[in-house]
Amino acid sequence: MSKEYVIAVAGNPNSGKTSIFNRLTGANLKVGNWPGVTVEKKEGRVVRGDTAFTFVDIPGTYGLSARSVDERIAMDFLTKERLHAVIVVLDSANFNRNFYLFNLIMEMGLRIIPVLNMSDMAEKRGITLHVDRLSAIFGIPFVKTVASRGKGISDLWNVLENIGQLGKPKHSLLYPKPVEAAALKLMGRFPKQVTSRFQALGVLDGGIVIPEDEEFRRVVTELQGEIEEGLDGDLDELIAEKRYEFVYSIAKECVERRLSTEQKVALSDRIDRVVTNRYFGGPIFLFAMWLLFFLVFTVGNPFVEWINNGFSALSSLVSGSGIVASFIREGLISGVGAVLVFVPSIFILFFLIAIMEDSGYLARAAFVADRFMHALGLHGKSFIPMLLGFGCNIPAIMAVRTLENEKDRVLTAMAIPYMSCSARLPVYLLFVGVFFTHHQTTVVFSLYILGIVIAIVVARVLRRIFFTKAVSPLIMELPAYHVPSIKTATRSAGIRTGFFVKKAGTFIFGAVLVIWMLASLPAGVGYASAESIIGRIGSAMAPVFAPAGFASWQASVALIFGFLAKEVVVGTLGTLYGGQASLSSAIGSQFSALSAMSFMVMTLVYIPCVSTIAVIRREIGTKWAALSVGVSVTLGYVLAVLVFQAGRFLGIG
Ligand code: BGO
């Protein structure tokens, strides 16, 4: 035999050490006793090619000291025997406790082959060990196994077959200087009794029995006294503490703990008892919504202001009265810019919706809504597409495909356009910024709730007229809650905000270009004056909106072009008031708080955009699409008039 290796197999009790040993040795066993004690000693010799491996199974222990028989056998064997390496079997599901022993064996200065056994159990408990990180830190290969199923044993053999190249662990624990110095001193003065740093530390912390030698004892006691005086504590405690700290530091870097499936389910159940509670569920949902808008404002507003200032500065750089300058100033910066300033708010809205969706809360909201929706003849499941409508109505309408029956699909698709999508948000932000500075969250939150209420009422009425069958009960599997991924939510919000920006650069840009042209023609009229083409169109429409409180021709034009997309409402106002000091001041002089409110209600209720109508037509048919346009425009107008007239009646406006 050209090469002979003796390898010890060490580990905590129940780490799977025997299973590993048996997998490596098969039936080639020699069973005897450890010298002087009746503790079984197992050895197995395996020949692979021209190499012989002798594996020695040492007793399972948590530590290495002279305090117990098993530990003493293990320690003696590891210190006195000429070993080529030690396989340290670690229970991955109890990494910290097992790694403590790994550290002790490492302190002995031995070559180690660490085996991360029970990796199946670890996974089940939601523990991930970063094997690559461990291997990189210690400069030795860590092997992942499931010994009971023989998994990873071939990887272990790969390491064993290359054992000639195996080095010692390169990272180790350093103790405070006085301790290290004392260990060195002991090794230097008593080289026969103390052959390694591990032994020196063992002698110092009392883990190893001190030989019957007067001089040796005296020096040890002296050193212990010196260290304890300097460190103000017991030396054995200090050493143990440092070892635990070391283990924790490695675990912190290399062990990731998630909740196991069972733990997750148990925790989810507990959370659900509150979140989906008959009495608390509704208020919690409302609070979540309120918080959403509170964050949109508190986090988003400073950014919105910066961008606004940036556009104002840009606008002041464009001087001259030429056609190009006018288009850049009134069309591009005032029109498209008015929409783009709200990009931060839109991003935050999408981000928070993604967090709600990813955490599993959105499904709960549907569950909570089910009871309420049932009372109204709708399916609770319909609430998920409806809530998605807060982002954008188009994908929300497409999501009705997930509903099982025709009636739910139709009613939900007809209800979604009233869910206030992100395109309406710039309109609200613009108006609340001028008229409701101290109640921004409350006003916007109320508009969103109004949207939900209208959506449900519309669905209820349509059901009464067109469908009569009973509603099937909601059977819904609620996914376990989990910590939402910031990365996923950021990416999702980034993509959706990207669409918003793209829309501003293409569709809204096109609309603004048309409005700007119509506001500049016929040649010779003042820009955006009542004599311009658009001024005349708007003036013809204005009386229609007078009962709703916004009789200015600019507001009429904004609402007409808002049919294309709701962002265009802001873009249009920006373009038409582009010649004035600022959009906010123009709005402030043209609207009152009451007419601003009725304008926002109108914007919320009448059709969201042409694309939504096209999607409704594609999903549920032309008849429903036409009905959606008719109902929403009429309802929007009636509600706006109602708000304004009721406000006036109450003396608000
Ligand atoms: C019994 N994964 C799992 N899930 N189990 C393992 C693994 C692993 O990676 N490795 C070992 N086991 P020992 P020590 C048993 O014996 O090797 C199991 O003390 C049983 N026995 O099969 O003995 C292994 O030498 C009846 O389980 O460890 C063993 O370190 C029912 O872990 C136990 C269930 O392994 C301890 C398990 C009659």
Q: What's the Cα radius of gyration? A: 38 Å
- Residue share in helices? 55-70%
Number of domains: 3
Mean pLDDT: 86
Q: Number of DSSP helices?
A: 28
* Low-pLDDT ranges: none
Number of strands: 9
Structural class: alpha/beta
Tell me the span between the first and last alpha carbons: 102 Å
Strand order of the main beta sheet, please? Answer: 2-3-4-1-5-6-8
Small-molecule components bound: 3'-O-(N-methylanthraniloyl)guanosine-5'-diphosphate
What shape does the CA trace take? Answer: elongated
The fraction of residues assigned to DSSP E strands is 5-15%
The biggest beta sheet is recorded as:
7 strands, mixed
Question: How would you describe this protein?
Answer:
With 653 residues, this protein is α/β, with parallel strands linked by helices. The chain folds into 3 domains: 3-165, P-loop containing nucleotide triphosphate hydrolases (Rossmann fold), CATH 3.40.50.300; 177-257, Helix Hairpins, CATH 1.10.287; 281-470 and 491-649, no CATH class. 62% of the residues lie in helices and 8% in strands. It has 28 helices and 9 strands. It has helices spanning 17-25, 69-80, 95-107, 119-124, 131-138, 153-161, 177-189, 197-205, 214-231, 235-254, 261-275, 281-317, 323-340, 343-359, 361-375, 383-388, 393-398, 406-415, 425-435, 440-466, 486-520, 533-545, 553-561, 567-576, 583-590, 593-605, 610-620, 622-649, and strands at residues 3-11, 29-33, 40-48, 51-57, 85-91, 112-117, 127-129, 143-144, 255-257. It has a 7-stranded mixed sheet with strand order 2-3-4-1-5-6-8, with helices on both faces. Strands 7-9 form a two-stranded antiparallel sheet. The longest helix is centred in the middle third of the chain and has 37 residues, at 281-317. It is elongated, with a radius of gyration of 38 Å. The mean pLDDT is 86. The structure holds 3'-O-(N-methylanthraniloyl)guanosine-5'-diphosphate (BGO). 3'-O-(N-methylanthraniloyl)guanosine-5'-diphosphate binds next to α1 and α4.
